[in-house]
Structure formats: structure tokens, C-alpha cells
Specification:
Elements: E1 8-13, H1 19-30, E2 33-38, H2 42-50, H3 55-68, E3 73-76, H4 79-89, E4 94-95, H5 109-120, E5 137-139, E6 144-146, E7 152-153, E8 160-165, H6 174-189, E9 197-202, H7 208-217, E10 223-226, H8 234-239, E11 244-247, H9 259-266, E12 271-274, E13 289-292, H10 295-305, H11 315-325, H12 331-344
Parallel strand pairs: 1-2, 2-3, 3-4, 8-9, 8-11, 9-10, 11-12, 12-13
Antiparallel strand pairs: 5-6, 6-7
């Protein structure tokens, strides 16, 4: 209130209660224009815990609907949300799809090795063999580095690395992934020609401890699951080092898109994603990844994608090539191309 007034106040919603009204009021006092960036509906997230007909949820919905109309400009993350805002809330919005930041990219092999060696000091799934075959070689579970030359290679028979970034909340059914991993481990026990699998699940949230106990009870032979806590700079490196991403985000409203998949695509990482209403605006089935409905479908997709691993002619490599050929514009490019012209007209 007491600094030099801004020309615009940008507010991401959610959380917008009470921030939308507060920012509008500050704008009235200071002469600033309010821009609301709709990433989801706050009331729909509240409804996960309280139910859609709870009085607080209905009050939050009314608040967002009324206060959302106060903005000078509304942005949203999907065409489906734009249509919903127009039809049900009389709010005109412009779609600005999320784009990855420039630091989400494929990780060079030598940087992968450094990351795996670092993670291996804390998480056994990333460690190399307990008894090194060659003292002149430094090994992680996925890479080998010649100590003399410094050259890094991927050893034959290495595990596949699957990454799932989760918020451990009720709109992500983590049991789908556990059931699919159970099936994958059983296929290997039955003699299927598949690689061993390391599944790294990142993130934090209220259900992490609950599912952590379930994971600890598993006695899988060929699948290892770890839940590493990553430094911010290590997260894009891990995505850029993985072989496949899995997304369990379902969306409380069905109208937003998972940013974690945007980040994965920035690293040219193919994705298996659970289906919901507008996911097709981001994940194109059989082109840059696969969409599944239940654990059985996900298990079948994992079996298919890893059946020829790491054959460069396999489906995984094809998806990665498609992502490379259809390179997403980065966040700053999208901002300059889409949002700045809107501000000039506001």
C-alpha cells in the first residue's frame, strides 16, 4: 500500500480467498489493474476434504464467482476452463497454457552420473553394485564412469528409471501406481524379458507417510521404490535423466492441467498419465505419451514400453523423438508472445 503503485497486480488462483478481494481493493486505492490467473477453482479443492455441498465450499464458490468478475483481465490454463468460466461464471478469460522453464531439459550423461552418485549416498536404489567388478570404474545403478578418462556410459542390463512427481493428496490415486508396479514385478518373476525398475517418487504432502508405510511392506524382487527429497536444482536433473514419467493428477475441477507433465515434456520425458476431462490439451495419446484409466491399463503400458528397453527403435524412444520434434515454447517465450500484448490492450 505504501510503495510506488504497480501498474498491474497479478494473482494466481487458487489460492484466491480472500486474496482476490484484497488485491482488487488495493488496486482501487493505488490505481493498479488486477489480473487473475486461473489455474483451478479453490472451491473444488476445498470440496475434496469437505464434500461439494458443504456450506464453506458453496460460500467459496460464490466468492470466487463474484470476485473473479472484478479483474481487468483473466487468464486461464486450458480451453476447457475458459469455456467453463464464460458459460457458468460470465467471466471472459484468455487461455495461456503452462510452459516449462528453460532449465527443464535433457540432462547430459556426465551430469546424470554425478546426480546418481549424489543420490546414492542416501538412497540405495541409486547405488551401483556392492562389489565393483573393475576398481577403475565408478558405478551408479544406471551409469558407469571410467576413472582415468572420465567417460560416462550406460551399462548393459541397467534398470529403467521411472519418475512420478506427486503432491500426495486425495486428487492423486497413488494406489494405481502401486498396483501397476506389483504387476510389473510379477511379470519379471514369471520370466518376462523386462528390465528391473527403479521408481523415484518426489514431492511431499499429507498422504506421503501413509503410502510410505504401504511401500515398506512390499517385498518386490525386481522393483525398487524410493521417495527422495530433492534439492530444487536436482529436480529438473532427475526428470532429464529418467526413462519414463507417471502422472497421477486428476484435477479437482477437471479443468486444469498438471504442471509436472509440462516440466517432464520440457525434459523430453515421455509420460503415462491418468485420464481426466481436458488432459488431451497436453498429453496426446500414442504421440507424446499414453493415457490410462486404471491400474491394469498402466501395468500393460509399462510392460509394452519397457519390453524392448533400451532399444532405440522402441516406443519410448519414438515418444521422446516426437517431443523433441515438437519442442514446446518456453515460459518466457510464451509470456512475450501471448501475455504482453494483452497488457498493452488493457
Amino acid at each position: 500500500m505504501w510503495t510506488e503503485p504497480a501498474a498491474y497486480i497479478f494473482l494466481q488462483n487458487p489460492p484466491g480467498l480472500p486474496a482476490i478481494a484484497v488485491c482488487w481493493l488495493v488496486g482501487c486505492v493505488c490505481g493498479s489493474k488486477l489480473v487473475v490467473d486461473w489455474h483451478n477453482y479453490g472451491y473444488s479443492i476445498m470440496g475434496l476434504a469437505h464434500g461439494p455441498r458443504h456450506p464453506l465450499v458453496l460460500l467459496a464458490k460464490w466468492y470466487e464467482k463474484v470476485c473473479g468478475r472484478l479483474a481487468h483481465l483473466n487468464l486461464c490454463v486450458t480451453h476447457a476452463m475458459r469455456e467453463d468460466l464464460a458459460e457458468n461464471w460470465a467471466i471472459r478469460a484468455v487461455t495461456v497454457h503452462d510452459k516449462p522453464a528453460s532449465f527443464f531439459r535433457e540432462t547430459p550423461l556426465d551430469a546424470q552420473h554425478l546426480l546418481f552418485m549424489k543420490l546414492g549416498r542416501t538412497y540405495p536404489a541409486f547405488r551401483g553394485p556392492a562389489a565393483p567388478q573393475d576398481p577403475g570404474t565408478e558405478r551408479s545403478a544406471f551409469t558407469a564412469r571410467d576413472v582415468r578418462s572420465g567417460a560416462v556410459t550406460r551399462p548393459h542390463g541397467r534398470p529403467a528409471l521411472l519418475v512420478s512427481s506427486t503432491s500426495w493428496t486425495e486428487d492423486e490415486d497413488f494406489s494405481l501406481l502401486l498396483a501397476a508396479l506389483e504387476r510389473f514385478d510379477q511379470l519379471l518373476r514369471d520370466g518376462e524379458s523386462l528390465p528391473p525398475l527403479v521408481c523415484a517418487i518426489t514431492g511431499k504432502g499429507p498422504l506421503k507417510e501413509f503410502y510410505g508405510r504401504l511401500i515398506a511392506q512390499k517385498r518386490w524382487r525386481h522393483v525398487q521404490v524410493c521417495t527422495p527429497w530433492l534439492e530444487p536444482e536436482d529436480y529438473p536433473l532427475l526428470l532429464g535423466s529418467a526413462d519414463l514419467g507417471v502422472c497421477l493428477h486428476k484435477s479437482s475441477s477437471g479443468l486444469d492441467l498438471p504442471m509436472k507433465v509440462v516440466d517432464m515434456f520440457g525434459c523430453h520425458l515421455p509420460v503415462c498419465a491418468v485420464s481426466f476431462r481436458c488432459l488431451h490439451e497436453l498429453v496426446r495419446h500414442e504421440e507424446n505419451g499414453l493415457v490410462f484409466e486404471d491400474a491394469a491399463q498402466l501395468a500393460a503400458q509399462l510392460q509394452m514400453l519397457f519390453s524392448k528397453f533400451p532399444d532405440p527403435a522402441g516406443k519410448l524412444s519414438q515418444f521422446r523423438k516426437n517431443l523433441l520434434d515438437s519442442e514446446l515454447p518456453r515460459w518466457d517465450e510464451s509470456w512475450e508472445r501471448t501475455v504482453l500484448p494483452l497488457l498493452a490492450d488493457t
